[in-house]
Amino acid sequence: MSESALYPLLFEPSLHVKVWGGRQLETRLGKRLPTAEPYGESWEIFWQNRIANGAQRGKTLGQFIQEQPLALTGKAQAEAEFPLLVKFIDAQDWLSVQVHPDDALAQALEGEPRGKTECWYIVDAAPDAHIIYGFAQPTDAETFRRAIAEGRARDYLQFVPVQANDFIFVPAGTMHAIGTGILLYELQQTSDTTYRVYDWDRLGLDGKPRPLHLEKALRCTRFEVQPKAKRPYTLQPMADGVQGVQLIDSAYFRLERLALQPMAQWRFGEAGQARLITVIQGSLALESENSAEPLHVSLGDSIFVPARLPFSLKALGAQTAEVLIAAEAR
Protein backbone atom coordinates (compact mmCIF):
# COMPACT_ATOMS: atom_id res chain seq x y z
CA MET A 1 0.00 0.00 0.00
CA SER A 2 1.41 3.41 -0.99
CA GLU A 3 1.38 6.40 1.31
CA SER A 4 -0.95 8.09 -1.16
CA ALA A 5 -3.62 5.62 0.00
CA LEU A 6 -3.41 6.65 3.66
CA TYR A 7 -6.47 8.28 5.16
CA PRO A 8 -7.94 9.25 8.59
CA LEU A 9 -9.27 6.18 10.39
CA LEU A 10 -12.56 5.82 12.26
CA PHE A 11 -13.21 2.78 14.48
CA GLU A 12 -15.97 0.63 15.86
CA PRO A 13 -15.73 1.53 19.57
CA SER A 14 -15.32 -1.16 22.20
CA LEU A 15 -18.24 -0.66 24.63
CA HIS A 16 -18.02 -1.88 28.24
CA VAL A 17 -20.87 -2.52 30.68
CA LYS A 18 -20.05 -1.32 34.20
CA VAL A 19 -21.97 -1.40 37.47
CA TRP A 20 -21.34 2.34 37.82
CA GLY A 21 -22.18 3.19 34.19
CA GLY A 22 -25.18 4.83 32.54
CA ARG A 23 -26.48 5.85 29.10
CA GLN A 24 -24.64 9.10 28.35
CA LEU A 25 -22.32 7.41 25.89
CA GLU A 26 -25.46 7.16 23.75
CA THR A 27 -27.51 10.21 24.75
CA ARG A 28 -24.61 12.68 24.81
CA LEU A 29 -21.95 11.17 22.56
CA GLY A 30 -24.01 9.31 19.99
CA LYS A 31 -22.73 5.77 20.63
CA ARG A 32 -25.19 3.03 19.77
CA LEU A 33 -25.47 0.95 22.93
CA PRO A 34 -26.56 -2.59 22.04
CA THR A 35 -28.42 -3.45 25.25
CA ALA A 36 -30.27 -1.66 28.05
CA GLU A 37 -27.43 -2.31 30.53
CA PRO A 38 -25.37 0.48 32.14
CA TYR A 39 -22.40 1.26 29.90
CA GLY A 40 -19.43 2.93 31.55
CA GLU A 41 -16.65 2.98 28.94
CA SER A 42 -16.25 3.45 25.21
CA TRP A 43 -12.75 2.56 24.05
CA GLU A 44 -12.42 4.89 21.08
CA ILE A 45 -8.91 4.27 19.78
CA PHE A 46 -7.46 0.91 20.81
CA TRP A 47 -5.20 -1.43 18.93
CA GLN A 48 -7.83 -4.19 18.80
CA ASN A 49 -10.65 -1.92 17.55
CA ARG A 50 -11.76 -2.53 13.97
CA ILE A 51 -11.50 0.19 11.36
CA ALA A 52 -14.97 1.42 10.37
CA ASN A 53 -14.28 3.40 7.19
CA GLY A 54 -12.46 3.25 3.87
CA ALA A 55 -10.41 0.56 2.16
CA GLN A 56 -9.10 -0.90 5.44
CA ARG A 57 -12.56 -1.37 6.96
CA GLY A 58 -12.74 -4.53 9.10
CA LYS A 59 -9.04 -4.71 9.95
CA THR A 60 -7.94 -3.96 13.47
CA LEU A 61 -5.68 -1.00 14.06
CA GLY A 62 -2.99 -3.46 15.16
CA GLN A 63 -3.20 -5.41 11.91
CA PHE A 64 -2.87 -2.23 9.87
CA ILE A 65 0.12 -1.09 11.95
CA GLN A 66 1.82 -4.43 11.28
CA GLU A 67 1.38 -3.83 7.54
CA GLN A 68 2.38 -0.14 7.53
CA PRO A 69 4.24 0.67 10.78
CA LEU A 70 6.24 3.64 9.52
CA ALA A 71 3.42 5.32 7.62
CA LEU A 72 0.94 4.97 10.51
CA THR A 73 3.10 5.54 13.59
CA GLY A 74 6.34 7.08 12.34
CA LYS A 75 8.28 4.06 13.62
CA ALA A 76 9.64 1.40 11.30
CA GLN A 77 9.60 -1.22 14.08
CA ALA A 78 6.27 -0.34 15.73
CA GLU A 79 4.45 -3.16 17.50
CA ALA A 80 0.85 -4.03 16.68
CA GLU A 81 -0.17 -3.09 20.24
CA PHE A 82 -0.32 0.67 19.92
CA PRO A 83 0.82 2.04 23.32
CA LEU A 84 -1.96 4.61 23.80
CA LEU A 85 -5.68 4.11 24.43
CA VAL A 86 -8.37 6.80 24.16
CA LYS A 87 -11.71 6.29 25.90
CA PHE A 88 -14.80 8.03 27.22
CA ILE A 89 -16.09 7.25 30.73
CA ASP A 90 -19.69 7.80 31.90
CA ALA A 91 -19.73 7.61 35.70
CA GLN A 92 -23.28 7.56 37.08
CA ASP A 93 -21.94 6.21 40.38
CA TRP A 94 -18.52 6.22 42.02
CA LEU A 95 -15.88 4.06 40.39
CA SER A 96 -13.88 1.97 42.84
CA VAL A 97 -11.03 3.56 44.77
CA GLN A 98 -8.09 2.18 42.85
CA VAL A 99 -4.49 2.50 41.75
CA HIS A 100 -2.50 1.41 38.72
CA PRO A 101 1.08 0.08 38.66
CA ASP A 102 3.97 1.78 36.89
CA ASP A 103 5.89 -0.03 34.16
CA ALA A 104 8.30 -1.80 36.50
CA LEU A 105 5.58 -3.06 38.86
CA ALA A 106 3.31 -4.11 35.99
CA GLN A 107 6.12 -6.28 34.73
CA ALA A 108 6.98 -7.60 38.20
CA LEU A 109 3.41 -8.27 39.40
CA GLU A 110 1.60 -9.17 36.17
CA GLY A 111 4.24 -9.87 33.53
CA GLU A 112 2.75 -7.07 31.42
CA PRO A 113 4.80 -4.75 29.20
CA ARG A 114 3.55 -1.46 30.64
CA GLY A 115 1.77 0.12 33.57
CA LYS A 116 -0.94 2.74 33.42
CA THR A 117 -0.39 6.46 33.64
CA GLU A 118 -3.45 8.36 32.47
CA CYS A 119 -5.07 11.78 32.24
CA TRP A 120 -8.65 13.05 32.26
CA TYR A 121 -10.43 15.90 30.55
CA ILE A 122 -13.84 16.56 32.13
CA VAL A 123 -16.41 16.83 29.33
CA ASP A 124 -19.32 17.40 31.71
CA ALA A 125 -19.95 17.16 35.44
CA ALA A 126 -22.87 17.44 37.84
CA PRO A 127 -22.80 20.54 40.09
CA ASP A 128 -21.53 18.56 43.09
CA ALA A 129 -19.17 16.21 41.22
CA HIS A 130 -15.94 15.11 42.91
CA ILE A 131 -13.00 12.86 42.27
CA ILE A 132 -10.65 11.18 44.71
CA TYR A 133 -7.02 12.05 44.13
CA GLY A 134 -4.32 11.03 46.60
CA PHE A 135 -4.56 11.33 50.37
CA ALA A 136 -5.96 14.04 52.62
CA GLN A 137 -3.65 13.32 55.55
CA PRO A 138 -0.35 11.53 56.15
CA THR A 139 -0.56 7.75 56.04
CA ASP A 140 1.39 4.67 55.06
CA ALA A 141 0.57 1.17 53.86
CA GLU A 142 -0.07 -0.30 57.31
CA THR A 143 -2.17 2.63 58.53
CA PHE A 144 -4.28 2.67 55.38
CA ARG A 145 -4.69 -1.11 55.43
CA ARG A 146 -6.07 -0.83 58.98
CA ALA A 147 -8.36 2.07 57.99
CA ILE A 148 -9.85 -0.02 55.19
CA ALA A 149 -10.44 -2.95 57.54
CA GLU A 150 -12.18 -0.64 60.02
CA GLY A 151 -14.33 1.10 57.38
CA ARG A 152 -12.46 4.40 57.69
CA ALA A 153 -10.78 4.56 54.27
CA ARG A 154 -12.70 7.70 53.29
CA ASP A 155 -11.16 9.62 56.18
CA TYR A 156 -7.75 9.37 54.51
CA LEU A 157 -8.71 10.14 50.91
CA GLN A 158 -8.61 13.56 49.27
CA PHE A 159 -11.93 14.54 47.64
CA VAL A 160 -11.57 17.20 44.91
CA PRO A 161 -14.49 19.05 43.26
CA VAL A 162 -14.41 19.10 39.45
CA GLN A 163 -16.31 20.80 36.65
CA ALA A 164 -16.43 20.76 32.86
CA ASN A 165 -13.11 21.59 31.14
CA ASP A 166 -10.95 20.60 34.12
CA PHE A 167 -7.81 18.65 33.29
CA ILE A 168 -6.27 16.07 35.64
CA PHE A 169 -3.03 14.12 35.19
CA VAL A 170 -2.97 10.77 37.03
CA PRO A 171 0.50 9.21 37.22
CA ALA A 172 0.76 5.50 37.97
CA GLY A 173 0.73 4.98 41.73
CA THR A 174 -1.85 7.70 42.43
CA MET A 175 -4.80 6.51 44.52
CA HIS A 176 -7.91 7.77 42.70
CA ALA A 177 -11.59 7.38 41.86
CA ILE A 178 -13.99 9.08 39.46
CA GLY A 179 -17.16 10.30 41.13
CA THR A 180 -20.86 10.31 40.34
CA GLY A 181 -22.14 12.53 37.54
CA ILE A 182 -18.91 12.83 35.52
CA LEU A 183 -18.50 12.34 31.78
CA LEU A 184 -14.85 12.43 30.81
CA TYR A 185 -12.26 11.76 28.15
CA GLU A 186 -9.33 9.58 29.19
CA LEU A 187 -5.94 9.19 27.52
CA GLN A 188 -3.81 6.40 28.96
CA GLN A 189 -1.10 3.89 28.40
CA THR A 190 -2.53 0.74 26.85
CA SER A 191 -3.11 -1.31 29.98
CA ASP A 192 -6.19 -2.46 31.87
CA THR A 193 -4.41 -3.41 35.11
CA THR A 194 -6.41 -1.96 38.00
CA TYR A 195 -5.99 -2.71 41.70
CA ARG A 196 -9.13 -1.90 43.72
CA VAL A 197 -8.88 -1.11 47.41
CA TYR A 198 -12.48 -0.06 48.13
CA ASP A 199 -15.72 -0.49 46.14
CA TRP A 200 -18.26 1.41 48.25
CA ASP A 201 -19.67 -1.79 49.81
CA ARG A 202 -21.75 -2.51 46.70
CA LEU A 203 -22.41 -5.60 44.64
CA GLY A 204 -21.39 -6.06 41.03
CA LEU A 205 -23.84 -6.68 38.20
CA ASP A 206 -23.60 -10.41 38.98
CA GLY A 207 -24.88 -9.81 42.53
CA LYS A 208 -21.48 -10.51 44.10
CA PRO A 209 -18.87 -8.15 45.54
CA ARG A 210 -16.22 -7.24 43.00
CA PRO A 211 -12.74 -8.49 43.87
CA LEU A 212 -10.28 -6.23 45.70
CA HIS A 213 -6.51 -6.28 45.26
CA LEU A 214 -5.31 -4.65 48.46
CA GLU A 215 -1.77 -5.98 48.79
CA LYS A 216 -0.83 -5.32 45.18
CA ALA A 217 -2.45 -1.88 45.41
CA LEU A 218 -0.49 -0.91 48.51
CA ARG A 219 2.73 -2.03 46.89
CA CYS A 220 2.04 0.36 43.99
CA THR A 221 0.72 3.35 45.91
CA ARG A 222 2.48 6.67 46.28
CA PHE A 223 1.26 8.00 49.64
CA GLU A 224 1.26 11.67 48.62
CA VAL A 225 -0.62 14.07 50.88
CA GLN A 226 -2.92 16.60 49.21
CA PRO A 227 -1.31 16.39 45.75
CA LYS A 228 -2.58 18.98 43.30
CA ALA A 229 -5.15 17.25 41.09
CA LYS A 230 -6.29 19.90 38.60
CA ARG A 231 -3.79 21.45 36.21
CA PRO A 232 -4.70 25.03 35.29
CA TYR A 233 -4.37 26.13 31.67
CA THR A 234 -5.39 28.97 29.37
CA LEU A 235 -6.22 28.73 25.69
CA GLN A 236 -3.83 30.90 23.66
CA PRO A 237 -4.45 32.57 20.26
CA MET A 238 -2.85 30.59 17.41
CA ALA A 239 -4.49 32.18 14.35
CA ASP A 240 -7.61 34.10 13.45
CA GLY A 241 -10.47 32.20 15.14
CA VAL A 242 -8.18 29.47 16.51
CA GLN A 243 -6.99 28.95 20.08
CA GLY A 244 -4.98 26.12 21.58
CA VAL A 245 -3.00 24.90 24.55
CA GLN A 246 -0.83 21.93 25.44
CA LEU A 247 -2.42 20.25 28.44
CA ILE A 248 0.34 17.74 29.18
CA ASP A 249 3.71 16.61 27.84
CA SER A 250 4.55 13.52 29.86
CA ALA A 251 6.92 10.58 29.57
CA TYR A 252 4.21 8.58 27.77
CA PHE A 253 1.95 10.97 25.88
CA ARG A 254 1.15 14.53 24.89
CA LEU A 255 -2.30 16.11 24.79
CA GLU A 256 -3.48 19.39 23.30
CA ARG A 257 -6.82 21.18 23.28
CA LEU A 258 -7.77 23.13 20.16
CA ALA A 259 -10.79 25.44 19.74
CA LEU A 260 -11.94 26.70 16.34
CA GLN A 261 -14.61 29.36 15.92
CA PRO A 262 -17.23 28.78 13.20
CA MET A 263 -15.57 28.37 9.77
CA ALA A 264 -12.06 28.76 11.21
CA GLN A 265 -9.45 26.34 9.88
CA TRP A 266 -6.13 24.94 11.13
CA ARG A 267 -3.63 22.95 9.09
CA PHE A 268 -1.35 20.20 10.42
CA GLY A 269 1.75 19.06 8.57
CA GLU A 270 3.47 15.69 8.87
CA ALA A 271 4.39 15.21 12.53
CA GLY A 272 6.36 11.97 12.43
CA GLN A 273 3.75 10.59 14.83
CA ALA A 274 0.14 9.53 14.66
CA ARG A 275 -2.36 12.11 15.92
CA LEU A 276 -5.38 10.81 17.88
CA ILE A 277 -8.17 13.36 17.56
CA THR A 278 -11.36 13.38 19.63
CA VAL A 279 -14.18 15.88 19.16
CA ILE A 280 -15.43 17.28 22.47
CA GLN A 281 -17.67 20.03 21.10
CA GLY A 282 -19.32 20.93 17.82
CA SER A 283 -18.65 19.58 14.32
CA LEU A 284 -15.70 19.73 11.96
CA ALA A 285 -14.52 18.75 8.51
CA LEU A 286 -11.22 16.89 8.46
CA GLU A 287 -9.54 17.26 5.10
CA SER A 288 -6.45 15.31 4.03
CA GLU A 289 -4.38 15.38 0.87
CA ASN A 290 -5.38 11.83 -0.07
CA SER A 291 -9.15 12.15 0.41
CA ALA A 292 -11.45 13.38 -2.32
CA GLU A 293 -14.12 14.30 0.21
CA PRO A 294 -13.63 15.74 3.73
CA LEU A 295 -14.45 13.54 6.69
CA HIS A 296 -17.26 15.12 8.74
CA VAL A 297 -16.97 14.45 12.48
CA SER A 298 -18.84 15.69 15.53
CA LEU A 299 -19.05 15.43 19.32
CA GLY A 300 -17.95 11.98 20.48
CA ASP A 301 -16.06 10.99 17.32
CA SER A 302 -12.40 9.90 17.50
CA ILE A 303 -10.02 9.70 14.55
CA PHE A 304 -6.56 8.14 14.11
CA VAL A 305 -4.56 10.27 11.67
CA PRO A 306 -1.49 8.42 10.29
CA ALA A 307 1.91 9.97 10.97
CA ARG A 308 2.66 10.70 7.32
CA LEU A 309 -0.67 12.29 6.51
CA PRO A 310 -0.95 16.11 6.48
CA PHE A 311 -4.47 17.31 7.23
CA SER A 312 -6.58 20.27 8.25
CA LEU A 313 -9.57 20.85 10.52
CA LYS A 314 -12.38 23.29 9.71
CA ALA A 315 -15.16 24.15 12.15
CA LEU A 316 -18.69 23.67 10.81
CA GLY A 317 -21.98 25.14 11.96
CA ALA A 318 -22.64 28.01 14.34
CA GLN A 319 -20.89 26.54 17.40
CA THR A 320 -17.21 26.70 18.30
CA ALA A 321 -15.68 23.30 17.62
CA GLU A 322 -13.20 21.79 20.07
CA VAL A 323 -10.91 18.78 19.82
CA LEU A 324 -8.37 17.00 21.96
CA ILE A 325 -5.27 15.88 20.07
CA ALA A 326 -3.16 13.11 21.58
CA ALA A 327 0.19 11.72 20.48
CA GLU A 328 2.96 9.55 21.86
CA ALA A 329 5.73 11.24 23.80
CA ARG A 330 8.55 12.48 21.61
Write the SSE topology.
Elements: E1 14-22, H1 24-27, E2 39-45, H2 61-67, H3 69-73, E3 84-91, E4 97-99, H4 103-110, E5 118-125, E6 130-135, H5 141-149, E7 157-161, E8 167-170, E9 176-178, E10 182-189, E11 195-198, H6 214-220, E12 236-239, E13 242-249, E14 253-260, E15 265-268, E16 275-281, E17 283-288, E18 295-298, E19 302-305, E20 311-316, E21 321-328
Antiparallel strand pairs: 1-2, 2-3, 3-10, 4-11, 5-8, 5-10, 6-7, 6-9, 12-13, 13-14, 14-21, 15-20, 16-19, 16-21, 17-18, 17-20
What can you tell me about this protein's structure?
There is one protein chain. The chain has 330 residues and is mainly beta. The protein has two domains: 3-220, Jelly Rolls (Sandwich), CATH 2.60.120.10; 236-328, Jelly Rolls (Sandwich), CATH 2.60.120. It contains six helices and 21 strands. The protein has helices at residues 24-27, 61-67, 69-73, 103-110, 141-149, 214-220, and strands at residues 14-22, 39-45, 84-91, 97-99, 118-125, 130-135, 157-161, 167-170, 176-178, 182-189, 195-198, 236-239, 242-249, 253-260, 265-268, 275-281, 283-288, 295-298, 302-305, 311-316, 321-328. A six-stranded antiparallel β-sheet has the order 1-2-3-10-5-8, with no helix packed on it. It has a six-stranded antiparallel β-sheet with strand order 12-13-14-21-16-19, with no helix packed on it. The chain starts with 13 loop residues before the first strand and ends with a strand. The mean pLDDT is 96.
